[in-house]
Structures are given as structure tokens and as C-alpha cells.
Amino acid sequence: NAGVMQNPRHLVRRRGQEARLRCSPMKGHSHVYWYRQLPEEGLKFMVYLQKENIIDESGMPKERFSAEFPKEGPSILRIQQVVRGDSAAYFCASSPYQDTGELFFGEGSRLTVL
Amino acid sequence: AQKITQTQPGMFVQEKEAVTLDCTYDTSDQSYGLFWYKQPSSGEMIFLIYQGSYDEQNATEGRYSLNFQKARKSANLVISASQLGDSAMYFCAMRERGGSYIPTFGRGTSLIVHP
């Protein structure tokens, strides 16, 4: 049973370009969470999605950031017109239910903006 | 208000000794889950241990145990017989109904194990 798969593992973009980060949850998991981790800091919640629905995007910056989780295919976190401050590790996690149970993480995608 | 508080930014321990990493939480829910994750320098988030609020026994997983004190709202991680490979960041997290079950993380504790 494959774990949570994130790609790319490393992404380099120049200022103003777009970054697309992908997350395939564990099989049977329909709840996906995206987190951002700045250097030397903890994980900050960005967005919570279920298939075809954004449930909570309270942690997402209002501009340039968007997320989706289509019926088929991975969840995608999209950052338009990247700036240096977007450089961070972006983690995706999945769970089978919306409850108090365990959360499974991907290995993260590290975005560097030049 | 912080939902998860980890008051120790950094901890040092001698190899083969035990170490306790502190975590306190804030919730008004009766049902919640508490987690610990390890993040080594390679960056991945490794699940260590889980404690449900209704679990009467403290959770244990190998050398990891969770000292769950519900009345004090604390969920400290105890690592017995520390190994050099335990050097990493450790994060405490919680899922609660009042937070829509969105996992909330503490700021982490950096553990360094000395030979």
C-alpha cells in the first residue's frame, strides 16, 4: 500500500513563475491537508480538501495560491507569480476520515524561488 | 491562543539515556487525538505515536511512549535509551472536533543526542 506521494521533491523557480505541487493521497483516503513549513519553523495549515471540494482554506494566502483535488488525479497546490518568500517546504497529508485519527504525510516538496 | 504548546525549543540528551519532550494542549472537546512526529534533517515527517483522548492506557511504540495526563492536558513524549539517530525535530499535534479535525502542530523541539 503506497504512502502519500508528493512530487516534485524539489522545485526551483524564478520570481514571477508558477509552481505546481502534486499530492496523491494514500489509497482509500479522501481527505487531504496541505501545510507549509518555513525554515526553522513548524507546520502551518494551508488548506483542507476532499474530492472536488475545498473544505477549509483559512490558512491559504488570499492571492496567488490555489488548491484543488479533482475527482480523478492528485491534489494540486498552485502558486502563481512566486516570490522569494514562497520558498519553503510544502507537505501534504491524508487521512481516511474526518476524525481524530492518524494523519499520513508525504515526504514534502521543497520550493526554492530564485 | 496556542492549541499546542511545546515549551522546549531545544533538548540535549546523552546516548542511551531517556528523554522527555513536553507538549501541552488546549481543547474543550471530549474527543480528540494527539500525535507525535519526528522530522530528521532529511525533512520527511515520520509518525511516531498516537493517543486517543478516550484511551485509558498510555500509548507505546517500541522506545516511544506517550505520557498522557488528561487533567493536566499534557501529552509528553518519552524516548527511552536514546540513540544518535533520534537527533531530529519533534512535533506534537492534535485533531479535535472543534477544529474541524484539522491537525494543529506545535512549534517543535529540537533534540540532539550526544555520544
Mind summarizing the main beta sheet of chain B?
A: 6 strands, mixed
| Number of separate helices of chain A | 0
Class per helix and strand makeup of chain A: mainly beta
Strand content of chain B: over 45%
How would you describe what is shown here?
- With 114 residues, chain A is an all-beta fold.
- Chain A has strands spanning 5-7, 10-13, 19-24, 31-37, 43-50, 53-56, 65-68, 75-79, 88-95, 104-105, 109-113.
- The N and C termini of chain A lie far apart (37 Å).
- In chain B, strands 2, 5, 6, 10, 11 and 12 form a six-stranded mixed β-sheet that branches. Chain B has a four-stranded antiparallel β-sheet with strand order 3-9-8-7, with no helix packed on it. A two-stranded antiparallel ribbon of chain B has the order 1-4.
- The chains are: A mainly beta (114), B mainly beta (115).
Task: Summarize the model shown.
Chain A has 114 residues and is mostly beta strands. Chain A has no helices and eleven strands.
Could you give the topology of this structure?
The complex is a heterodimer of chains A (114) and B (115).
Chain A: E1 5-7, E2 10-13, E3 19-24, E4 31-37, E5 43-50, E6 53-56, E7 65-68, E8 75-79, E9 88-95, E10 104-105, E11 109-113
Parallel strand pairs in A: 2-11
Antiparallel strand pairs in A: 1-3, 3-8, 4-5, 4-9, 5-6, 7-8, 9-10, 9-11
Chain B: E1 4-5, E2 10-14, E3 19-21, E4 24-25, E5 32-39, E6 46-52, E7 60-61, E8 64-69, E9 74-79, E10 88-96, E11 104-105, E12 109-114
Parallel strand pairs in B: 2-12
Antiparallel strand pairs in B: 1-4, 3-9, 5-6, 5-10, 7-8, 8-9, 10-11, 10-12
